[in-house]
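Most newcomers find our protein records easier to grasp once they have seen one. Each record describes a single protein and holds just a pair of labelled lines. A learned vocabulary of local backbone shapes supplies the integers on the structure line. Nothing more is needed to start thinking about how sequence determines fold. The record below serves as our worked example for the rest of this section.
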Amino acid sequence: MNKDKYVVVDIETTGHSPAKGDRIIQLAIVTIENGIILDTYMEFINPGRKIPMFIQDLTGISDEDVAHAKPFEAYAEIVSEKLRDAIFVAHNTNFDLPFLQKELQRSGQPKWQGLAMDTVELSRLLYPTAISFKLQDITADLGIPLGNAHRADDDAYATAELFLRSKEELQKLPYETLAMLHKRSFLLKSDLSRLLYEVTASKRGSHASGFDQFKGVQLKTRKFTDVGNRLDFTPQTDWNGRLGNVFPNFERRESQFEMMSAIQEALGKRDEMVIEASTGMGKTIGYLLPAANHALTTGKQVLVSTYTTHLQDQLIWNESEIVEKFIGEKVHISLIKGLSHYLDLSRFTEILHGEDESYDETFTIMQILIWLTRTTTGDLNELNVSSGGQLLLDKIRRTHSRRPDREEKAYDFYEYALEQAKNADIIVTNHAFLLNQVHSSNPLLENVDAIIWDEAHQAVQAAVSQYEKTFVYTHWKYIFGQIGTSEERQLYSKLRTAAEISDFASLTELAKLDALFIGFTDYFDRICSMLSMEFAEKFKSRRHKKNALLLDEIPYQTKDFSEFLRLLNEWIDLSQTILQKAEYVSEKTIEDQLTVADWRYWTQELMVKAVEFSEIFVYPVKDEVSWIEGDLRSLPNSLSLYKRPFNVTSIIERVTLPVRGKKAVIWLSGTMTVPSNERFIVSQLGVPDSVPITKYEPPKDFYQGARVFIIEDMPDIQQVSQNDYIEAVADAVIRTVLVTEGRCFVLFTSHEMLRKTVDLIQDTQLLDDYMLFAQGISSGSRMRLLKSFQRFQKSVLFGTNSFWEGVDVPGDALRAVVVVRLPFTSPDEPVFKAKSDLISKKGINPFLHYALPEAVLRLRQGFGRLIRSKEDHGLFIVLDRRIETKSYGQEFLAALPEVGVSKVSLEKMVTDIEHWYNKH
């Protein structure tokens, strides 16, 4: 075999199974020798059968294209010759190679023998932060041309370029990293070990610059910020003139300038200010520029808090360059997240020296080794790993329970982020991290002169989540399964062996540890069995398979819960004693060190679980609500319990009260008010009534490209069955998508309704030409789904709560938002139910003062996804007739901007949209 010869193959077929008669319709082979593309070969192939329509749509290859082509047998000998003595390369060898082998055998050619390398596996390894590893996505990210995706000739050539680019990336890695990769590469699914050996051997003895080393692991060298002297800085306040220079197509907005001037003044006076800035106002730049002015003028820091870590990343990567161009000087903006976002280097190096448990673990370790040569943040959220790899990431996150020693501290990513924050002009964080600072020893707020809460209304949800406690049956059972008993070959058995050799625990202690484990796991099963029976009894007359109810509604005695907790805490105490003694034993094998480290990790996990269990069941806190959820078809496996605070004002005030009057506090949001209750949000944030809400609206013609449709002939959601309503929704969505040619958001309030609607639409096959992305069905995070949606012209995104806000899709990328039902929280939702009961006891109508304002806010946020600039055009389609038939419907309409509202039949809407699109 010629190790320097690679043949890159791509095929298009009539389907996925040659055994069921599917055949190749196009074949392309690109030959690479000595790192150079020497030859390309392409043939259309007559499959001897009709090409299915969906394949024609996907590939652009029709029956006419292959009508005069020869069958595969005519090319089999040429193909076999081209493959001889070469390494086979494809983007998903598991499809291309078996299919090709079947065709070769069917044509009387010998089965191909040799090494095969998969560029999907290779690109996942080398580009671990990429959003997607589909050929058209990864090549687009790397700037590799791909003319027509799903055409064999273009795909094969792009795959060859991807392979060569990946080989170049491998050669940039330090020798030490390559050696570690090669050691694990024999466990990969394709023969990449040959490629890694070749590159590693070529770099033996070399030394790469730009890297630090921690316990043998290569890290990208970091640079530390030095702010320097800014005493002579002059604030830049020519908002109009300078922004026009920064933005080539700057759109002048008087209200934006007014907001910036007001923020600048509030920062200078250290005032508190509440701002509602409508969509399209340029809110982010509107506060960042005054913040930079203030920081550089005073030498003090400004802290910006957002709701999600994604918004943090947007601020750093999208806006910082604009700020510097405007200010005319270097502005240091640093990013700090919660501890668990960061890699624990010591924990990772411990795992690195152990035996991998699975392919996913091996592969994720290899991804991290490469990522560490590039990342300066150490933020594990950057990585795109498999679900199995996610389990490994959870093991190597930084925790409060283990502090880095002196050697590690110099390389620790969290410590680096804190150091950068100390020297920054503007610190960017998230609400959860900021709310947690009152419990932290980090002096992060010492030099902060102003706090800006972006998406301030979400501080309420962040405070709720911060104090949420959970009890999930499967999580507990997974931990138990990892630890095991003396009769099981799990971690306990390994600990016992290590302790016997190194003598850090007596047989008596180990026996007691095992007995306590058996004791509390037995009580755990007893408790969960009781909860399951009581839960099932409550819902025996209901048809719903998934249900929820308040924990108070289940009669249970705390005796078994207390005994479980006592045994668990006794086990934790003994486990910690053994771990302390293990620390003093210096002569442990690498395997024993890893066993002790794993035992420490699972002990810490149970410590956290014990606290949560205690606060849910044994020592409940006043003003908090606990509820239980489960699926009647799979109890106790589906059993989950949650505990959240009722009122979060006091939680937020722990941050704001100490600084109020001493530092500036700016609250900003696009949706801070509702027509019937202006202070619905700010009162929950603890903002004094003396602080007014200042509103900044976009120009009058800003929403001229928007239209609202209310569909009059939809069935009444309260008068028909859910299945009938879903059928009507599916029909309306299909017709909307066909007339707008995709680019639609379809927003639900229920995952179950979303899933059933998507299933029904797929069954009709009427949208088979469209890419359908559905939250909870399609794989990937919210942002990954959004990026995938934006990449395709004909795409539809089905989402629930998290897609109602915080998602930016500018321009023609989003043409329509379809609201399936008004976004009321379900009255059976436990927290809502408990809070409503509390409000009712005060003689206040919970619907008018709680349910309605929440739903109105959410609808406003949904509309905000649609129009992001004056040039945008979009349709806001409401399928829920209650917005028209109920007295409270006017509240929703009054909350929307002044745009044209049409109350029409579905048929009339389709006609109107056709005319509207033709006009625009």
Summary: Residues 507-538 form the longest helix (32 residues). The chain has 35 helices and 25 strands. The mean pLDDT is 88. The domain at 5-172 is CATH 3.30.420.10 (Nucleotidyltransferase; domain 5).
